[in-house]
Amino acid sequence: MATVPAYAGIDFGTSNCTAGYLQQGEPTLWPLEADSCYLSSALYIEKPPVDDEDEIKTPSLNQLLREQHPVYLGQAAHKKYSQDPLGGVFIRSPKSMLGSRLTPAQTQVYEKVCALMLKHIRQRAGGDALQYAVLGRPIHFQGIDGAQGDDRAEAILRAAAASVGFKDIQFAYEPVAAAIEYERTLSSEQKVLVVDIGGGTSDISLVRLGPQLRQQSCRTADLLGHAGRRIGGVDMDIKLAIYGLMPALGRGTLAQTGRPLPSASFSDAVNIIDIQAQENFYQKATAKTIATLIADAQQPLLVERLLTLYRHHLSYYLVQQAEQAKIELASAAEHQVSLARLDANLAMDLTADTLSQAIYVELNGIRKLVQDCLQSAGSAPDQIFLTGGASAAAGVVGVLQQVLPETPIMRGDRFGSVGKGLCSIANQLYQ
User: Which band of pLDDT confidence, cut at 50, 70 and 90, is reported for residue 61?
Assistant: First the structure.
């Protein structure tokens, strides 16, 4: 019977989580959900039933957590949300808000949410034998307050990890972890631009890699330059939902006065990575706000779909449809999106141009990060290593080719490179 290691490398990701260790020099990821080594970063917390089914009544998330209502994680959370969106609170990508300016109460909520995920990971991995971990972290979590915001994010994760039984955790930069995993494939020294476009952040690092460098415990001198911001796949999904799908719900249409309808409710409806925004949107007062929009609208039937979204808690459904469209548009010129849960016969045709326009700000941000990284390094790369779940989004490769047209692009395991690299880092620290 194999001995369970006391350490793990944990990729606590915006979209997915992994955990693993080194086995005979090879990264090995534990199955965290059925037979899959990927745990979707999602939770569904059941609400107590209400007497009046027509009344939208959402207890605070803090109250639900305090009262220890049933919690589902990963694909089980997605399934429960799909079956009963009104029966609970669905949380997607809790990592996206780490580093934000949170109130003490909000900090407590995020600590509990992160603890629920880390507890599941620890139980599915080494159990009680798992005492130590290296957690991946972006170069900057939110980008708010710089290092101070990063310290806040780390503090939440440290407290969450301690509360579920970890004796010690350390942090490692996610792009460095991805670089270390890629380094295992190299036969000569290279300067590699690691482009990690994840669900919540984009991290760009120029790293010196090579077979002679692998055994060094400290690689600080090999990190030649880096830049990072909170730009990720979930942001792209939300933008595509706003600009590509929300027009079918009345966004951008006119009021009786001839002015555009206020856009705040449309944006808040799909801001699924901000738990506070979602709680605010699903308050009872929002129904009156939407009713006012319907009364003022030149095309009220469109805005009634926003009311349907509100009544049936379909925010994530809309963003999920946008996410699937983004995936399809990476290899197709157009894609038809069904929105049947909002309106039986409703479908939207989205094109690659629509996606490019929707995520123009994000693509420009990635371009600026690459330029900043190269400037800080004062050197050019021999290769580009592209990884991260959102790296397949249409336009990302085009940005890299514009900035570095002569540099070859190598693709890694989009979802596993960081986690596998963290296994190697954890082995060096704790073995």
Answer: confident
